Hints:
By secondary structure, the protein is mostly beta strands.
Amino acid sequence: MxxxxxxxxxxxxxxxxxKMWQCIAGFVMxxxxxxxxxxxxxxxxxxxTILLTYGNRLNPKGIDVRFSNDEGATWSEPFRATGFLGDGxxxxxxxxxxxxxxxxxxxxxxxxxxxxxxxxxIWDAEKTRGQGGKSE
Length: 136
């Protein structure tokens, strides 16, 4: 089970009939925005890989992506799917039938459009993982 917190994501497992939980993996980043619901921001891709998309509010700001091939024990280095200016984040992603990923997010602005809006970016997970996005 994954638990999203304000500044990261943790892999946890229940102990003592779910009265206590043990953190078994994860990472924490300052400036991270992940929706704290079960699948928003995290999704299992068709090949079983766990995909995590999240808003990174540290400069330069943007929507970052990580992959895990081992049930969240380790995560790839982040890949920048798109950037934004000012406030932004809370992405959600879905894998399209052709294997590409569609990620929707909100942002205060992007170069050329400095107003709040919902943005959508379509990107290729295979090419992204080929650029260093493989789990360690």
